[in-house]
Amino acid sequence: MNIRRNGSSVWPYIIVGSAVGGTVACLFMTDSGRKFRRSLSHPDELGKNLDNARDFVERKARVVSDQVHRVLDQTKRSIAEGERAYREANQTFQMKARQIESKNDAIATNVHEKVDRLSRTAVVVEHSVLDPLIEIGALYRGIQKGIRAILGKTGGRPLRSSTEEGPFSYDRGHRVI
Asked: What is the pTM of this model?
């Protein structure tokens, strides 16, 4: 629809007319419009209405301010509670870490003591069992070589045959050598 009048558009007039019509309808058809008309027709009530409006705004501002303060107080308490919980958790963690470290030290000390005892036991076994066995073995070899030297069997095969066992060897006449 293209409406033109003397080369200009009609739409601006339609928009302005709609706005004026809506305003007039609002003033005459709604409760707030009636109150507004009454305040214009009775200027003495306008001051009272302004005082009421100011009181209303102050009351609402106090309510909003109180709510903001409550929210801020709750936020501060929540932050303080969170910080306290964090400190308690950190202290608990540190205590448990110290307990674990203490147990670890006790285990390490116990292991070191056991290793030291085992080492001392090995030294005792070496001195009391192995050293005499080695000396007996050396003595046996010395006696064996001495007997060979007396019998004139140096070098050659050992006095013991491969089927005989034990520390002593027998010659062909079954005599103990």
From this structure: 0.37
